[in-house]
């Protein structure tokens, strides 16, 4: 997003703790500028939502057999249709299960990395979000090798919105192989590790996903080679 000085910033969402009843009330009566989404990813289904675990199970048996391991994390997702997950990739084999509603995925294979532009952004976080205002607090990092001087933290992130790609600035994106998938209630999607994905959802969609750690095999080596070559090109 852009701040008042038209500087582009990567802003993390504000995190709030509330009772499930309050969260559901926000979903039932959505308001401007206040978008609720359960997205705590540290295996929240085995922690915060462990009461729901018997209804879905701690793993997908065929996936655990195929990957020869148990999942690293099992995550519960539910939220507002206005909550959109921007294009990114994960180092996990992802089994994504929709329980109610639907999820719309835009997928790009990791072999298309040369056509998916990254930029480096200053990192911030939303604070004091209300229905008519918000603040963005910049995240500071201490540079240990420069006399412990503070600096604004940065991170590389995909620059392109696949819903409205700016081909003037990113003409190479026209060459990307784009797959659009709707995962409906009762469907299960296997999202391979390192695949780029952008996600939207129906309002109140409920989903669970299982993250299996990827193997650092030839696929990982090939992807790292692509990263290096893209950096050399720039």
From TrEMBL:
PROSITE patterns: JMJC. InterPro entries: Cupin_8, JmjC_dom, RmlC-like_jellyroll. SMART domains: JmjC. SUPFAM superfamilies: Clavaminate synthase-like (SSF51197). Residues 41-227 form the JmjC domain. It comes from the Eukaryota. This is JmjC domain-containing protein.
């Amino acid at each position: 997003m852009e701040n008042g000085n038209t500087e582009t910033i990567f802003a993390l969402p504000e995190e709030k703790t509330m009772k499930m009843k309050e969260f559901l009330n926000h979903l039932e009566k959505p308001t401007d500028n206040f978008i609720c989404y359960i997205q705590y990813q540290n295996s929240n289904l085995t922690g915060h939502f462990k009461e729901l675990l018997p209804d879905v199970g701690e793993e997908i048996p065929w996936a655990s057999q195929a990957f020869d391991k148990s999942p690293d994390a099992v995550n519960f997702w539910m939220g507002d249709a206005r909550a959109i997950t921007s294009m990114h990739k994960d180092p996990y084999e992802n089994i994504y299960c929709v329980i109610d509603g639907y999820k719309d995925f835009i997928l790009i294979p990791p072999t298309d990395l040369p056509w998916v532009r990254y930029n480096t952004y200053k990192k911030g976080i939303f604070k004091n979000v209300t229905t008519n205002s918000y603040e963005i607090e910049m995240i500071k990092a201490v540079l240990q090798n420069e006399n412990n001087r503070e600096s604004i933290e940065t991170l590389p992130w995909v620059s392109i919105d696949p819903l409205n790609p700016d081909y003037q600035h990113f003409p190479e994106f026209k060459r990307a192989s784009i797959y659009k998938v709707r995962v409906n209630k009762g469907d299960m999607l296997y999202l391979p590790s390192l695949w780029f994905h952008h996600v939207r959802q129906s309002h109140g969609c409920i989903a669970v996903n299982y993250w299996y750690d990827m193997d650092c095999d030839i696929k990982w080596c090939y992807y790292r080679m692509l990263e290096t070559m893209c950096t050399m090109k720039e």
